[in-house]
Amino acid sequence: MDRVLKKRIAVLGSTGSIGQQTLEVARAFPDKLEVIALAAGSNSTLLDQQVQEFQPKLVSLGSQGPSLEEISTHPDIDLVVVATSGKAGLLPTLEAIRSKKIVALANKEVLVMAGEIVMAEARKYGMEIKPVDSEHSAIWQCLQGEESNEIAQILLTASGGAFRDRPYKELAHVTAEEALRHPTWNMGPKVTIDSANLMNKGMEVIEAHWLFGVQYDKIKVMIHHGSIIHSMVEFADGSIKAQLGVPDMRIPIQYALSHPERWDNSSMPKLDFDQIDSLKFAPVDFDRYPCLKLAFEAGAKGDTYPAVLSAADEIAIELFLDGKIGFLDIPKILEDALGRHTRIPNPSLDDILTADAWAREIAKGRYAA
After folding, report:
1. All residues at 6 or more sequence positions from 123 whose CB lies less than 8 Å from its CB, including other chains
2. What angle do CA 82, 138, 115 make, to 5 degrees?
3. I need a labelling partner for 21 at 20 to 30 A (CA). Which of 145, 332, 344, 351 fits?
4. What separation in angstroms does the CA of 19 have from each of 14, 240, 264, 347?
């Protein structure tokens, strides 16, 4: 294939779980994808290996090299994969949109913090954000060819995380090591911990609201063992579309990179229906998963509440991973920050960043001692 027909990509967060799997897809399609830029936070050893293999023009490690905003606006880049975690992905996403780059978004906090601003910029510049999360990719695929005003309900599936089968009373004493043992997905530490208490799913609810323009009362979360159905959409006539596949993040990553095409990847696992006895579902118990309830509430309140939720959660996960708090202290941190927050109506980007910084200090000040 002629070089000019390749998609020239930047991978922000290239040494993380999503970043590494993005590069696996790029490795499988050297005639379709060219890696122009790699950016990582601190894993210099792995980044060096990636640089040697892909020979990108731009490389960033921590504060060294071009900033993430510089990379996301570089003229030689067509598509930016935002695979960072936390608020680090927000400004690069906005700058990529304003530079009319395609954004493949894996960073949950971007839309949780500033969904209204990000989606308004996407509409202004005529850019579609391509979701990388398996759940949002599933919804995106189900909605193709459909009218948004015909959506009756979005059904977000959740595995239930590492502790879905553990008695709730035992969760006060679980360790970070236990929480990192996800039953079906291979993900980074923060998103894995968030999956164990369904905070991850709460963020996805807020993301779905912004990505697909669906109100919160039309978004339902269901526990689905096995992670075979990645999400579903129910339409006004009662019809339901579902997207199925093996739980492998390379599949939604590849679709975000290949869209509107679908590429044959021989290394990708295929779903074998002969091995599936049943598709099991269960309702969500909000008493068991208070983080999910808090996310629904923060999303419905809007303004700066979701930014506070996201920031407090980031600190709470750090504290839990460092052994400074217990697993059941995480929702307490979120509830405390949300309860003490004073809404900033119609927030600007500066307002959102201010609320984010405030929430981090509140969480650190009360629980980090």
Report:
1. none
2. 45
3. 145
4. 4, 32, 21, 31
Report d(CA 16, CA 27) in Å as an integer.
16
CB atoms within 10 A of CB 1: 9
* pLDDT tens digits for range 133-189: 999 999 999 999 999 899 999 999 998 877 888 888 888 888 888 888 766 656 678
3, amino acid identity: R
Q: Amino acid letter at 42?
A: S
Is the predicted pLDDT of residue 369 greater than 60, yes or no? no
Residue 3's pLDDT is 44
Spatial distance between the Cα atoms of 71 and 42, rounded to a whole number of angstroms: 17
List, for residues 86-107, the tens digit of each pLDDT value.
Answer: 889 999 999 999 999 999 999 9
Distance of CA 153 to CAs 149, 175, 243, 244, Å?
Answer: 11, 36, 15, 18
Q: Which of 200, 172, 230, 183 minimizes the C-alpha distance to 310?
A: 200
Strand order in the sheet with 281-283: 240-244, 229-235, 151-158, 219-224, 281-283
Do residues 252 and 240 make contact, with C-beta atoms less than 8 angstroms apart? no
3-class secondary structure, 66: coil
Structural contact between residues 257 and 7, judged by C-beta atoms closer than 8 angstroms: yes
Q: What angle do CA 317, 178, 335 make, to 5 degrees?
A: 35
pLDDT of residue 189: 82
Domains of the chain with CATH codes: 3-131 (3.40.50.720), 134-247+254-290 (no CATH), 302-369 (1.10.1740.10)
**Phi-psi sector, 314: left (phi>0), alpha (psi -120 to 50), beta:** alpha
Rounded to the nearest 10 degrees, how much is the dihedral formed by the CA atoms of 249, 253, 258, 261?
40
Measured between alpha carbons, how far is 304 from 299 in angstroms, rounded to an integer? 9
